[in-house]
Amino acid sequence: MNRLLPRAYWCHADTDSTPTTPPPDDLLTTAPGQALAWFRASVRRLTPGLDHDTRRRARAWLGDRRSAEAAIRSLRRGQGYAYALPTPDGTWRWTAYPVSALPLLPTDQQPRSHA
After folding, report:
1. Do 10 and 32 form a contact (C-beta atoms < 8 A)?
2. How is the chain split into domains, by residue range?
3. What residues does 96 pair with on adjacent strands?
4. Who's near 40: CB < 8 A, 6+ residues apart?
5. What is the value of pTM for the model shown?
6. pLDDT of the residue at 107
7. What are the angstrom distances between the C-alpha of 55 and each of 13, 29, 49, 102?
8. pLDDT of residue 110
């Protein structure tokens, strides 16, 4: 039996500086829209602590609907997506990669014994 593993998207953020705001937790999701929503929420969370020019660039990216639609199409095609935001203190990078995910048992089910 040849079954394909379901596609999922692993999302990660990091910076090459010592952040005043810690990077968000990684995310594994089966929906490209959720991956992009994670990007957007993470960038929004970071913007209050940014200088004026960087905050303006971040808000421009957040408001760019075409870019968001292109990111989702890219993920659906099985390609990765990345967004980088240079700041005076260092560069923040958000990435999403398609991965194959093994299905897990729901936490409310107990494994069956094969006696």
Report:
1. no
2. 7-100
3. 11, 81
4. 62, 68
5. 0.78
6. 59
7. 17, 27, 8, 38
8. 53
- The 10 Å Cβ neighbour count of residue 78 is 9
Residue 7's Cβ-count burial label (10 Å; 0-12, 13-18, 19+) is middle
Q: How many residues does the chain have?
A: 115
How much is the CA Rg of the chain, to the nearest whole Å? 18
Q: Could you give the percent of the chain with pLDDT greater than 70?
A: 82
Reduce the DSSP state of residue 92 to 3 states and report it.
Answer: strand
CB atoms within 10 A of CB 27: 19
pLDDT exceeds 70 at position 1: no
More confident residue, 103 or 57: 57
Instruction: Give dist(CA 109, CA 106) in Å, integer.
Output: 6
